[in-house]
Design goal:
This protein is α+β, with helices and mostly antiparallel strands. The chain folds into 2 domains: 53 residues; 150 residues, Acid Proteases (Cathepsin D, subunit A, domain 1, Beta Barrel), CATH 2.40.70. The strands form 2 sheets. Strands 4, 5, 6, 7, 8, 9, 10 and 13 form an 8-stranded mixed sheet that branches. Strands 1-2-3-12-11 form a 5-stranded antiparallel sheet, with no helix packed on it. The termini are far apart. Pfam families: gag-asp_proteas. This is Peptidase A2 domain-containing protein. It comes from marine metagenome. InterPro entries: Clan_AA_Asp_peptidase_C (IPR011969), Peptidase_aspartic_dom_sf (IPR021109), Retropepsin-like_bacterial (IPR034122).
Length: 208
């Protein structure tokens, strides 16, 4: 067969090759866009799952340097002491969260440092002498708007402002603890071991 040397033959083949390349590029771009959409959809589903999936019933705080831990299981809170025998947990007062509490069943009142009192805009009432797990001192009567530990919250908690406190902890005393059930068991302090009871003494108690 004679070789086709017509001048327009080469141009036609060239145009066909260009079309093939463009088709391949368009196909690759379409696949890239589809892949991006799939990744975006997967990321969206993952984020939505964080809001819709139920949280596990038990949350255990990471163990602190001194060995104390607080385990939250619904309304039940199990506190293990540090190497000094002190019980600690985190909670909130009013709109301030992530507060470190030292739980003191021998303290008649909860107490807060003066800087915490200023952040909460608390009233400074009558001056009284104090004695807690952190030592003797003085304080001023006040009322905390609410104290929340785990899923248990109590309104209008009687407390003291301790301007001399050098501790890194607020005191969770009996003005909170008397509103709930608690017990010592095998060296642990358990709050709400069987649930909780209604508040008394003018404080309003509810579960979150």
């Amino acid at each position: 067969m004679a070789e086709d040397k017509r001048w327009w033959k080469g141009d036609k083949d060239s145009d066909t090759s260009k079309e093939d390349v463009e088709d391949l590029l368009n196909e690759a771009e379409a696949k890239r866009l589809q892949r991006e959409e799939e990744l975006a959809e997967a990321e969206h589903r993952e984020k939505m799952a964080e809001f819709t999936d139920p949280a596990p019933s038990t949350m255990k705080e990471s163990e602190s340097d001194d060995g104390s831990t607080a385990e939250f299981d619904g309304q039940r809170i199990v506190l293990k002491p540090d190497r000094h025998g002190n019980f600690k947990c985190k909670g909130s007062i009013g709109n301030i969260s992530n507060i470190d509490f030292l739980v003191d069943t021998g303290a008649s009142f909860c107490s807060v440092k003066d800087e915490t009192a200023k952040m909460l805009n608390l009233d400074w009432g009558e001056k009284v002498e104090t004695e807690t797990a952190t030592g003797k001192g003085m304080g001023f009567r006040t009322t905390l708007p609410d104290v929340t530990i785990g899923q248990t919250s109590i309104k209008n908690v009687d407390a003291l402002i301790n301007p001399l406190s050098e501790s890194g902890y607020e005191i969770l005393g009996m003005s909170f603890l008397k509103q709930i059930e608690w017990e010592h068991d095998d060296g642990k302090l358990i709050l709400n071991p069987e649930g909780s009871k209604s508040g008394s003494g003018g404080s309003e108690h509810w579960l979150l």
